[in-house]
Amino acid sequence: MTSAWNNYFVPDTVAEALAILQRYDGRARVVGGGTDLLVESRRGLRRPFEAIVDATRMTGLGAIVEDTGHIVIGCGVTHTMLVNDERIERAGTCLSESCGVIGGPQVRNTGTLAGNVAHALPAGDGTIGLLALGGEVEIAGLNGTRWMPAKDTFKGPGRSVIDRQREILTRLRFKPTSDNEGSAFHRVMRPQGLCLPIISMAARLQIEGDTITSAGISMGPVGPVPWFAAPVADALVGGRASEERFAKAAEVALDNISLRTSKYRATEEYRATMIQTYLPIILAKAAQRAGVEL
Ligand SMILES: Cc1cc2nc3c(=O)[nH]c(=O)nc-3n(C[C@H](O)[C@H](O)[C@H](O)COP(=O)(O)OP(=O)(O)OC[C@H]3O[C@@H](n4cnc5c(N)ncnc54)[C@H](O)[C@@H]3O)c2cc1C
To answer: What is the whole-number distance in angstroms between the Cα of residue 144 and the centre of ligand 1?
Structure first.
């Protein structure tokens, strides 16, 4: 088999990219920054592929734009671009914070949010930030283009409904937070050369007066896929934004997950304590950013 590097394509359009993927019939792979794909390929963790289709140079997909009430992020947008964008910092703060902790500057300069979501790891930081915001993804294939909630794309660790040999995650979007909304992200990690996240959490709250009217909570790794914590959001909505309610939310989270002890990450007990400690803190931060004095 020829090296995939001999067949490295940089298409200008989605149609061109899809045509190349079709020609290789499952033997080509879409690549963003390559910070996951190429590392895993070198370590022999991936089935060898014959061609690489670079999704970062397609016209119109290398920018962050505002469109029909959404902030829309092209698949060529890197973590650094997201962190440096004032609109993301203001109206998607938890996404800015989550992309800001990924790797080091080199990884953030090349790695994309699209790659983070398409990779479907339970602890993908950008993914956790996007989920709390209620993010959606656009998937382009030969049969057309569809938008779907990002939370519905995950099938298991590293497994996605996106067929990464035949489809392209072209754009991601979320509704910007308004004046009575705020969001926050926090990661507890164990730095060991490569960062090993113990637990990452993000929250988006909308508050009217002192009543929580809408919530989006996400967390990982707490299972095979990044967790969109609907039961936690349900426990928050309709109640008063208060320290007591935020502490209760952490208990609801723990009632709905089975944490495991990992010799590389932390014990089950430690991870539970981190959720009890930090989920109330990021909820309070999101509430303050929504303009509420606690
Ligand atoms: C040193 C180091 C540190 C890291 N630290 C972190 C960290 O702290 N937090 C974290 O979350 N991650 C971390 N990562 C992992 C990685 O950098 C991120 O997940 C990054 O966002 C991946 O994006 P990428 O564009 O490089 O993806 P790629 O490696 O290009 O692709 C990843 C997967 O997604 C697919 N894919 C990529 N783009 C598309 C697309 N547009 N459409 C369809 N499929 C696509 C690829 O086929 C592949 O399966 C680290 C990696 C390294 C090497």
So the answer is: 25
